[in-house]
Specification:
The structure holds 2 protein chains of 2 kinds.
Chain A (H helix, E strand, L loop, with lengths): L7 H11 L6 H5 L4 H14 L8 H10 L1 E2 L4 E2 L9 H13 L8 H10 L17 H13 L8 H10 L17 H13 L8 H9 L20 H11 L8 H10 L23 H13 L8 E2 L4 E2 H6 L15
Antiparallel strand pairs in A: 1-2, 3-4
Chain B lengths: L1 H38 L5 H13 L4 H15 L5 H21 L4 H12 L9 H4 L8 H20 L4 H13 L22 H14 L4 H22 L9 H6 L2 H8 L4 H12 L4 H17 L4 H10 L2 H14 L4 H25 L1
The chains are: A mainly alpha, B mainly alpha.
Bound molecules: zinc ion (ZN).
Zinc ion (ZN) binds next to loops of chain A.
Chain lengths: 331, 360
């Protein structure tokens, strides 16, 4: 495949094929990520302007079948335990499909609130692993449900402050090294809470700009390899800090496009991999496409970098924050 | 020939697919069986053993880790004495260690180890033979487990010195250690169970990691955390005792960071750390000396982006414009940032000049 353009139609059929791959062992071994994967696939389709390529009714039905009535949240798959990450995926999917009224808002709110610890951190589930990813999930869920007033903001922000490091970035717990994905979740959380004053924006902008490597790709930490998914984690953070132009867009676009799966065999094909030559997956497909959207790649839909949702939808919910992506180019 | 090759490929593909379908069938059968037992609240040893089989195949199946812990809490532990609970948890630590060696980045495995450690019981039986030594305070099982954990995680870090799961886990272990044994009360055999690390030994740990590889940013990061912690200590005790101004001077007054900068001037790890270190020590004499060191390096390596970047951050304004132009030339990917810094500088200069005009 030529790597100069985004092979939108091939990627659309790749995403359509994912739900039918039941004769692949990997499909069954990743059941614990199913709801997250549906969100990634659907979001990739939204960015590529093919939202209707998956069946709306089937998706809603599947989401609702993942409800864990004992816990009051969503698991990633029917009969799997509730966890805050698939709970966010469920709410994102239902919002994108314009079916937000399906969920039991009071129960989800109390589930989310129950996961906050006295330190201000959030656990992912009943057994208490903490991570700033879960803080983001909690704040994003409450914001999308219009229930941010139930959150102890002081405590939440206090914990994020403790996760801030000497390089301006954030880690996944107090004491942890800065990592671009954790930077995204912390910066986006602070953006939702209108508290970007907690970020050393010049310092962090510098650290983020230094994620770009000579081949155009971005890494997630100093002296690590490039990876397509960091296109989203780094660019979304930079968009929120209004410094996305600190990255060289052309070489990053080429890098993402070169990670598109080649169609050497007619059995496979489509999707974007973590880096050129590797096997594509839906996770890198959505974050590659999302990165391209923030870089103004032609003929893509606008993506809200704070919520990782369609920009128009977030605007219509009245939740849009003051971020800046690169202008949409024309072909 | 090509035709034969294609047929062979097609046959290989079919054979592979048949094997895969058989695997899928047995995996799904096992998964369904375990989930059914979970559904009916089966907390038997048989159920426990089935979760072992399933997690050995798929350690990311978080629901099954949860179920396993529920089996322990609701089925196994209530019927066990502390020694039996201890044995069960030791088995699980061995089981997850095997899993970690294959999957060093799976959150759920690390997470289950934490849970095991946090449930190691206090030994009610304080007879010497029950605890392999002298009569003690009942915490030796915990001490032994946490000591082994520290050993295990540091081994994992030898295998991958940038594994952030391992670094995080090590910080967690160090913060969660049981109290050291009462002084003078040491076990008759085996390693010391005084596990707590001093800031000095922790600093030495990061030095060792950095010297093994100057690019290990995880270790530089940890070093900043050690200083942040000793900084607080310095406020309370060391400074009052009048011994040291600030432990941060240690790094600046040793040539440690400079040595890293000289070893590979293109490696950003030491430079990011250096910038932070300088910002913590706004002593003009120190800054002057550091600028001199970087200028010497720049003379040897005229295209060193990081030398210029550091000088840009610490230099007098008239020099900065020149430095920024040079950075745009040698590091064009970030030219917009250098451009913005130049604009900022111009605005700041104009503002200062305007203020001077206004005040005269
Ligand atoms: Zn990735």
């Amino acid at each position: 495949m030529g790597s100069k353009e985004l092979a939108t139609l091939v990627h659309v059929s790749y995403i359509q094929s994912l739900g039918k791959a039941t004769d692949d062992l990997a499909y069954h071994l990743t059941a614990h990520l199913r709801l997250n994967a549906i969100y990634w696939g659907l979001m990739a389709l939204c960015v590529m302007k093919h939202k209707d390529a998956l069946d709306r009714g089937e998706m809603i039905e599947f989401v609702m079948s993942c409800w864990d009535d004992e816990a009051g949240g969503f698991g990633a798959h029917p009969d799997h335990d509730a966890h805050i990450v698939p709970t966010l995926s469920a709410i994102q999917i239902l919002h994108i499909l314009d079916a937000p009224d399906q969920v039991d808002v009071p129960r989800i709110v109390s589930y989310v609130i129950s996961l906050q610890n006295s330190s201000g951190s959030f656990s992912g589930d009943q057994f208490g692993e903490t991570d700033t990813r879960f803080t983001y999930c909690a704040v994003s869920i409450l914001s999308l449900l219009g229930k941010l007033d139930t959150l102890d903001e002081q405590k939440t922000i206090g914990y994020l402050r403790k996760c801030r490091n000497f390089d301006g970035g954030f880690g996944n717990t107090e004491g942890a090294e800065s990592h671009a994905a954790q930077v995204f979740v912390c910066v986006a959380t602070l953006a939702i809470l209108d508290r970007l004053d907690e970020v050393d924006q010049d310092m962090l902008g510098w650290w983020l700009a230094e994620r770009q490597l000579p081949n155009g790709g971005l890494n997630g930490r100093p002296e690590k390899l490039e990876d397509v998914c960091y296109s989203f984690w780094v660019l979304s953070s930079l968009s929120i800090l209004k410094r996305v132009h600190w990255i060289d867009a052309n070489s990053l676009i080429s890098f993402i496009l070169s990670a598109q799966e080649s169609m050497a065999s007619d059995l496979e094909g489509g999707g974007i991999a973590d880096r050129p030559g590797d096997t594509a997956d839906v996770f890198h497909t959505v974050f590659g496409a999302a990165g391209l959207s923030l870089l103004g790649y032609p003929d893509l839909d606008d993506l809200d970098p704070v919520y990782c949702m369609p920009s128009r939808l977030i605007e219509s919910l009245g939740l849009k924050k003051d971020w800046v992506a690169l202008g949409r180019r024309t072909l | 020939m090509a035709y034969v090759g294609q047929r062979a490929n097609a046959r290989n593909y079919r054979e592979r697919k048949e094997k895969e379908l058989a695997k899928i069938k047995s995996y799904n059968a096992l998964s369904d069986r375990v989930l059914a037992k979970k559904h009916f609240g089966d907390y038997s040893i048989e159920a426990l053993d089935l979760t072992t089989d399933l997690l050995a195949i798929n350690p990311e199946f978080y629901t099954i880790w949860n179920y396993r812990r529920h089996i322990f809490l609701n089925g196994v532990f209530p019927k066990s004495n502390p020694a039996e609970i201890h044995a069960r948890l030791k088995d699980d630590l061995e089981f997850t260690l095997r899993a970690l060696k294959q999957h060093p980045k799976v959150y759920w495995i690390w997470n289950h180890r934490r849970w095991c450690l946090e449930h190691i019981p206090v030994a009610h039986d304080a007879r010497p033979e029950a605890q392999g030594g002298a009569e003690r305070d009942g915490l030796d099982w915990q001490r032994q487990s946490w000591a082994r954990e520290l050993f295990v995680v540091e081994k994992m870090m030898d295998a991958d010195p940038r594994n952030f799961h391992a670094w995080n886990y090590r910080r967690y272990v160090l913060a969660s250690l049981p109290p050291d044994p009462p002084s003078g009360d040491s076990p008759s055999s085996g390693p010391s169970l005084a596990l707590h690390r001093t800031p000095a030994s922790e600093l030495a740990f990061t030095t060792k990691k950095i010297e093994a590889n100057f690019s290990n940013f995880s270790a530089w990061h940890q070093r900043s955390k050690v200083y942040a912690a000793t900084g607080q200590m310095a406020d309370a005790s060391i400074r009052d005792a009048g011994q040291l101004n600030s432990p941060l001077f240690l790094d600046l007054n040793s040539s440690f960071v400079n040595q890293a900068m000289y070893t590979d001037p293109n490696d950003q790890s030491a430079w990011i750390y250096h910038r932070w270190l300088i910002s913590q020590n706004p002593d003009p004499a120190v800054i002057h000396r550091e600028i001199q060191i970087i200028q010497d390096l720049l003379a040897e390596e005229p295209d060193s982006k990081w030398c210029l970047e550091s000088l840009e951050d610490g230099s007098v304004k008239t020099e900065v414009t020149k430095i920024l132009q040079r950075l745009i030339d040698i590091d064009p990917k970030r030219k917009e940032r250098y451009h913005d810094l130049g604009l900022e500088l111009a605005t700041a200069t104009t503002a200062t000049t305007t203020n001077q005009h206004l005040s005269t």
